[in-house]
Amino acid sequence: MTDFKEALKSCYSKDLEERKTWYSPAAEAYNKARPRYPQQLIERAVELTQLQDHAKILEVGCGPGIATVAFAKLGYSMLCVEPNPDFCSLVQQNCQEYPNVEILNTSFEESQLETNKFDAVLAATSFHWIPAEVGYPKAASCLKDNGYLILLWNMRLEPSDEIYKNFIKIYEQYAPSLLEKYEGEYEGREKQEENLKSFGEIVLESGQFQDLVTEYIPCELTYSIDDYFALLNSYSPYLSLEAQAKEALFAALREKIEEDGTSIQLSFLSGFNIARKI
Asked: Which overall architecture, per CATH, does domain 2-156+187-220+269-277 show?
């Protein structure tokens, strides 16, 4: 648990100004390749939070709108706070048909938001970028009495253990720095379950929320080789990888994948932590 919390700190250790444009080089790849959240999970979140048709949702760090669209199409009024200008452009495009969505190009930390305004605060694989001592109290202040925090998570997408072991040899040769930051440990379902539960424990430790519910769904997706590389490019550690090293790494990975075909199957857990404001 301690190691997991320490790993989370690396997300928000970057300067706030740096975080505002950190994903800009990967914005299109993120929009294209990151998995969507299962409709079953969205419906379950709505059921647990008892969101009414007129409910107002504040979304923190909406990115290109992957979760935004899922909730906007249900008719909810949404205010989305996103610090990255490239993501803001994409979410505006993706939500063109939803006039109930408003986008603010600012960080959650810097945003001036009404208190006791929202029925739910939503964050989709984004809340770990905000220091806990800032994020949870501010989220609670924005919620109405008995409002809900909804943290959606798509965990890391991974190939089979056998393929992963072959990949590790390639990483050792072409990108050993990523082994320390990201690719050194195969998570698998059990580890991802533990991580989701750990996210939930952090919610309760904030002292702002109660009645925690953590649920998840095992997911599998098949990616073409190009889409797989777009997915990798959307992950934070790859953004700091030197271009020549990344090119060599991807070339070697492509060769290995093509030994068995033109696509790769990936597994992950999609889940949520939902808790009620105290």
From this structure: 3-Layer(aba) Sandwich (3.40)
